[in-house]
Structures are given as structure tokens and as C-alpha cells.
């Protein structure tokens, strides 16, 4: 009986020690004031501004004034002579640029109407993100283009002629079936590449800047050079006067 009584007391002491240890751990956490501070950040209009709070945040209320919100680019044909949406627009090319991509929409003489031109732009398989529509104002129908993205990088420009410096580039593929290359595709993985790279293998970038300054730059090609590296070298060579992009296997 004494042994059983001793074991019972010993078990009770072990349980008490465990609870005291748990209590000590809990009070140790509470002794740190940082653990008692929970920060919650909220915005009066989360559609305009979202907030988050870190452990270093200070309590308080702050007012942030938004002077201007980013808006999508809109272009409107000012000097419209179209009384009806079914008026013919004439034959020729309508050329516009958006998101560093240029599109050429071809109109046919005595066939393509203003409405048709809108549909040609919207149904273009390679439309870079522009929606065309008609604006009726002062008795005339005006062609209107709206960008789908906001920010300074998404501007619409109408070009009088084709400005694609790199139009001579064909589609870059990785096999005979025409699988388009990607940004990370190595130059040595492109279909048609043969042989081995030497120590002095170069790619030459030539052309002219808008002010007529000649561009003639070489950069070395290694086994690690990718299409993305090529795009970067082209953009560096033209110092911002022209921008190359890589879309669906083609450099533009």
C-alpha cells in the first residue's frame, strides 16, 4: 500500500511539474511586449490602395493622398469625315503600336468600311491588347482605340509607315516542325544551327537610330547565350530609340 501511495504521489508531482513548466513558458512569452502587439492594417478603399503591417509597424492612423490614378490609354481619330459607320475607309494600311508591338491592318479599296476596320482590329489574332470601337460625336463617326492595360508602358501610337526595324527576322524555331523558340532557348538550340561554337563567334547588330546615327554592335555568342540575351543586346545597341520584343517565336 505504501508503494502504491508513493507512486501516486510521484505521478501527481510529475503532472504538477509539467503544468508549472507550461505556465512558465506561457508567462515567458507574455513578458515580451512585442508578442502582445498585433498589428492590423486596413485601407478605406482597397481598390485604390492595399496595406500590410510588419512587426516593426507603429500604431496610428495615416492619411495618404492619391493625386492621380493610372488610366488605360485612349486614342481617338479627331478629324473624321465618316458620316456613317458603313462608309468606306479606302485602301491601304492602318498601322498602330501598343505594348512595344506594331500591327498592320490592311483595308481594301471600296470594300472595307469603318465598321469592318473596327472588326479587323478586334479580331486580329496578334492584337497586342487594344480594343477598337466607334465614337459618334458632332455628326461624325470617329475610330477609337482603348488599351486594356494601365501605365506609361502601354501607350497607343499611330504610325504613318511601318517602323519595324527587325522585320527581316524570320520565326525562330527549335525543330523542323516549326515549334517556336522561347526566351530561354539557347542560340545553339535553334533549328538550323550546326557545327560548334568557336572562341570568336559573334552576332552583329546593325541599323540606324532615329537621328540617323549608325548602329553596328557585336556581341560574343557562347553555349549559354539565349534568345533573351539577344533581345537585351539589341535594345542596348539602340539605346532606347527602338525596342525589340520576342512574341510567338519572332523578334519584333
TrEMBL record:
Keywords tagged on the record: Bacterial flagellum
Alphabetical list of InterPro entries matching this protein: FliD, FliD_N
Location of this chain's protein in the cell: Bacterial flagellum
Keyword flag Mitochondrion: no
A GO term from the CC aspect: bacterial-type flagellum filament cap
GO terms (BP aspect): bacterial-type flagellum-dependent cell motility
Domain Flagellar hook-associated protein 2 N-terminal: 5-72
Main location: other
Presence of keyword Transcription: no
Stored Pfam families: FliD_N (PF02465)
Record-stated family: Belongs to the FliD family.
Subunit structure: Homopentamer.
Protein name stated in the entry: Filament cap protein
Organism: marine sediment metagenome
Lineage, opening ranks: unclassified sequences, metagenomes, ecological metagenomes
Amino acid at each position: 500500500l505504501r508503494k502504491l501511495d508513493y507512486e501516486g504521489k510521484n505521478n501527481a508531482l510529475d503532472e504538477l511539474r509539467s503544468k508549472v513548466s507550461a505556465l512558465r513558458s506561457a508567462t515567458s512569452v507574455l513578458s515580451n511586449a512585442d508578442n502582445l502587439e498585433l498589428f492590423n492594417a486596413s485601407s478605406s478603399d482597397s481598390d485604390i490602395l492595399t496595406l500590410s503591417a510588419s512587426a516593426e509597424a507603429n500604431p496610428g492612423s495615416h492619411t495618404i493622398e492619391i493625386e492621380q490614378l493610372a488610366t488605360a490609354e485612349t486614342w481617338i481619330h479627331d478629324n473624321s469625315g465618316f458620316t456613317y459607320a458603313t462608309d468606306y475607309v479606302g485602301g491601304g494600311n492602318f498601322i498602330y503600336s501598343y505594348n512595344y508591338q506594331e500591327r498592320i491592318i490592311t483595308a481594301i479599296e471600296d470594300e472595307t468600311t469603318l465598321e469592318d476596320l473596327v472588326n479587323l482590329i478586334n479580331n486580329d489574332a496578334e492584337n497586342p491588347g487594344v480594343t477598337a470601337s466607334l465614337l459618334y460625336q458632332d455628326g461624325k463617326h470617329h475610330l477609337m482605340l482603348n488599351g486594356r492595360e494601365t501605365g506609361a508602358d502601354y501607350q497607343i501610337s499611330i504610325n504613318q509607315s511601318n517602323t519595324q526595324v527587325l522585320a527581316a527576322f524570320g520565326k525562330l524555331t527549335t525543330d523542323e516542325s516549326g515549334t517556336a523558340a522561347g526566351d530561354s532557348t539557347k542560340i545553339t538550340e535553334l533549328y538550323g544551327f550546326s557545327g560548334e561554337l568557336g572562341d570568336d563567334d559573334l552576332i552583329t547588330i546593325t541599323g540606324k537610330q532615329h537621328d540617323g546615327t549608325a548602329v553596328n554592335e557585336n556581341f560574343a555568342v557562347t553555349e549559354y547565350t539565349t534568345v533573351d540575351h539577344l533581345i537585351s543586346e539589341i535594345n542596348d545597341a539602340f539605346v532606347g530609340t527602338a525596342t525589340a520584343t520576342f512574341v510567338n517565336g519572332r523578334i519584333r
